[in-house]
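Late entry, written up from scratch paper. The run itself happened at the end of the previous shift, but nothing got recorded in the book at the time, so transcribing now.
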Amino acid sequence: MSFKLASLSLIALALTLYASPADAQARPRSGFGFAFGMGGGNAGVTCDECAIEMDERLNGISGFVRLGGYASSRMLVGVEGSGWIRNSDGLERRIAAVSLVFVGYPSSTAGFFVRGGGGGIRAVVENDIASVVGEGITWSVGIGFDIGSGGAALTPYVTYLNSTEVAADVNGVSTGVNLNPNILQFGLAITTR
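Output as recorded:
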C-alpha cells in the first residue's frame, strides 16, 4: 500500500472516531435511510490457482449508494451497490457489488457505526481484444461516523470488500479459475437519518 493511500486511510479512520458535542444531541434515527459516497479505492486480486503471482494493487475511484430502513434507532438494514473503476495502460477495470447490509450504531443518537454485509460481485478487465469477467460472492465490513445533528449528515467511511469463488471467464469461455477481487474503500458520504 502506498504512503499516500495509507495516510488517507488513517485520516479517514481518525475522522470516523471523532465525535462532536452536537452529534451527542442528534435526533434518533428512524424511517427511510439513504447514503451516497464517493472517494478512493485500492483494489487487488488473489488467485490461488494461477500460474503467475498476482500481488499488484491499484488505486482507482470508488463509491457506493445505499437504500434502506431503520429497524431501530441503532440498526439500519438496506441494499447497497458499490463499485471501483480504473482505466489505464489500455485496460478498463471495473468491480461492482450488490449487497444486503446491516449498519449498527452503538448509540441511538451518536454517529459512530460499524457495517457488514454480503451479496454478489462482478469484476471485469477488458481491452479491444479480450474481456475477463468474474462473478461470485462478496462480503464486506466497515466503519464510519455521521457528522451532523439534523436530517442529513456528512459521513467519512472506510470499507473493506472481499470475495470468494469469483469464477473467471475469458471472452465468454469458462477458465475453471477463481479470481477473488478485494477493495479497500474510503471517502465521504451524505447520509440521511
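The first helix runs from residue 3 to 17.
(Scratch paper discarded after transcription.)
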